[in-house]
Amino acid sequence: MAWFKRVEKGIVTPTEQKKETPDGLWHKCQECKTVVTMAEHKRLLYVCGNCNYHDRIDAADYFEFLFDHGQFTELDANLTSGDPLHFVDTKEYPKRVAATERNTGLKDAVRSAHGLSAGQPLVVAAMDFKFIGGSMGSVVGEKIARAIDFARQNRIPFLMISRSGGARMMEAGYSLMQMAKTSAKLALLSEAGVPYVSLLTDPTTGGVTASFAMLGDFNIAEPGALIGFAGPRVIKETIGKDLPKGFQSAEFVLEHGFLDFIVDRRELKQRLADLLGMLRPAPAAAVPEQREARRTAPKAH
C-alpha cells in the first residue's frame, strides 16, 4: 500500500478566478531567448544583457537617453509629405501616409531635435523604421537638411542616426534628389568646421547608405547592424556566388574599412561626449584671433 495518497489532480483554480499575464511585462530576446522584465530591458536601453543583441528602437527612445534628462527642442515637427506624383499602388499615397501617421503617431520617417547631451549642445536627427520602412522621401531629406542648417548656423555638432530601407518609391525621383540635397548640406557643414557623426543602426540600406549615412567625419555603428546598399539576397542572385559569413554586418563593414568604430548603445552617450569634446568647433569670432596670435608669437631659437 502506498504511503501517500493523491487527493486532487491537476490545477483546480476555477476558470473565473484565472488571470492572464498582462502584456508588456516581460521581454524575450529574439537572439538568445533570455527572458527579462521590460523594466530591466528598458534600463539596459533595449540591449540584451546576456548576448548583447541590440533591439531596434525609435527616435523617441534615442532622444530620451541621449539628451540630458530627456529634455530637447524638436525641429520642424509638423512637416508632412505631399503627393507630387499622384502615386497609387494598393492604395493612394496620401491615404497610406495618413494611415501610417495614425498607426505610429509620427509625421514621417525622421525626427530632429537639439538640446544638451552630457552637458554639450548637440543636434540629432533620428530615423523611425516603422514609418514606411524608414524610407527616404522629400520630408526626410528636407528635415535632415534643415537640421544640418541649424547645426551649421549655431556651430553645434550634428548626429545622424540612420535606420532605413532606402528611397521611398512612392516619390521616385523626388526621393533620389534627397541624396544630393543632404550631401550638399553636409559639404557646407564640413566647410564650416562643424563636426558630423553618422550612427548606422539596423538596417541602414539603399540610398541612405549611398548618401548621408556614409559621409560622417566619423561613421560609427551599433553591433550587428545590417549595413549595405542592395540586400544580401539581391547581391547573391546578381553575382551567382555565396556571400562571406556575416556579410554586411557592422563587424564585417568595420573589418573592411568603412566604419571607424562600433559602439554599444549603453556607451553611446559617453563615447559621443568624449569624441565631440575633442572636436568641438571654436567660435567663429575666435578663429581670426587665434591665427593672429600664431603669427605674432615669438619663434623659438
TrEMBL record:
Positions of Zn(2+) binding: C29, C32, C48, C51
EC number: 2.1.3.15
Protein source organism: Hymenobacter armeniacus
Catalytic activity entry: N(6)-carboxybiotinyl-L-lysyl-[protein] + acetyl-CoA = N(6)-biotinyl-L-lysyl-[protein] + malonyl-CoA
GO molecular function: acetyl-CoA carboxylase activity
Domain of life according to the entry: Bacteria
Chain ranges of zinc fingers (C4-type): 29-51
Cofactor, how bound (note): Binds 1 zinc ion per subunit.
UniProt keyword list: ATP-binding, Cytoplasm, Fatty acid biosynthesis, Fatty acid metabolism, Ligase, Lipid biosynthesis, Lipid metabolism, Metal-binding, Nucleotide-binding, Transferase, Zinc, Zinc-finger
NCBIfam families: accD
Quaternary assembly: Acetyl-CoA carboxylase is a heterohexamer composed of biotin carboxyl carrier protein (AccB), biotin carboxylase (AccC) and two subunits each of ACCase subunit alpha (AccA) and ACCase subunit beta (AccD).
Entry's localization field: Cytoplasm
Protein name listed in UniProt: Acetyl-coenzyme A carboxylase carboxyl transferase subunit beta
Family according to the record: Belongs to the AccD/PCCB family.
